[in-house]
Automatic annotation (TrEMBL):
Domain named ABC transporter: residues: 19-253
Protein species of origin: Allonocardiopsis opalescens
Name listed for the protein in its UniProt record: ABC-type polar-amino-acid transporter
GO molecular function list: ATP binding; ATP hydrolysis activity; ATPase-coupled polar amino acid-transporter activity
An annotated GO cellular component: plasma membrane
């Protein structure tokens, strides 16, 4: 599943706001990790969040399906406020896929079982339909031949592709990627980025926290730069990487980009 690295990012499918954060704040004790965050992600849009370590990127990602509760502000998903608990939150989490840096697969279940578990248990899909969908998704991410293996028998890149298939199996409205390649050996990074780039081309709404600047340039509709718990600036990849507006972003890019 390789994508044309020179292709332009796909335009959003429509202009409907899908994920909206308004005046969101979050503390961990005395540490103010999210400061007055305002961000709107539209259906079909790929937003890549970058910034130095400790800037609040992963926390922002985790607030969108309430893995981290916020102190104040509002978050809506497809027009619905983020529930605090109960069945409403479970339903919302079905609509918000999550791919973590550490895979989080069930080690005692096969690849196929990992992918079918959510649709059967949460979406109440019958097992044969879930099985067919899982095989199709494993083909989509290039590892259908690994369906009967256990996670420990797979490489890190293969495990992360299983995690992506598992998120897709829930038919989510948006998928959050929290540094999905940071735990991978360098030679495995590209196979995961290729899958993510293909999803972006297909119009999947994605919020991606990553240090992979090549992916941000190639696949993002918008780059959001965070520092010190704030969104410092956001722009198209071309504008951000060639003409960053803030001194903080210029300093960050000068340290991570080689010319």
């Amino acid at each position: 599943m390789t994508a044309d690295p020179n292709a332009e990012p796909a335009a959003p499918v429509d202009a409907r706001p899908l994920v909206v954060l308004t005046d969101v704040n979050k503390h961990f004790g005395e540490l103010h990790v999210l400061r007055d965050i305002n961000l709107t992600v539209h259906s079909g849009e790929v937003v890549v969040v970058i910034g130095p370590s400790g800037s609040g990127k992963s926390t922002l990602c985790r607030t969108v399906n309430r893995l981290e509760p916020i102190d104040n502000g509002t978050i809506t998903i497809d027009g619905q406020p983020l529930p605090e608990e109960g069945r409403g939150l479970a339903r919302l989490r079905s609509d918000v896929g999550m791919v973590f840096q550490s895979f989080n697969l069930f080690s005692h279940k096969t690849v196929l079982e990992n992918v079918t578990l959510g649709p059967v248990k949460v979406r109440k899909v019958n097992k044969s339909e879930a099985h067919e969908t899982a095989i199709r998704l494993l083909e989509r991410v290039g590892i259908a031949d690994q369906a009967d293996k256990y996670p420990a028998q797979l490489s890190g890149g293969q495990q992360q592709r299983v995690a992506i298939a598992r998120a897709l199996a829930m038919n989510p409205k948006v998928i959050m990627f929290d540094e999905p390649t940071s735990a991978l050996d360098p030679e495995m990074v590209q196979e995961v980025l290729d899958v993510m780039t293909s999803l972006a081309r297909e119009g999947m709404t994605m919020i991606v926290v990553t240090h992979e600047m090549g992916f941000a340039r190639r696949a993002a509709d918008r780059v959001v730069f965070m520092a010190d718990g704030r969104i410092v600036e956001e722009n198209t990849p071309d504008e951000f990487f060639t003409n960053p507006a803030s001194e903080r972003a210029r300093d960050f890019l000068s340290k991570i980009l080689t010319h």
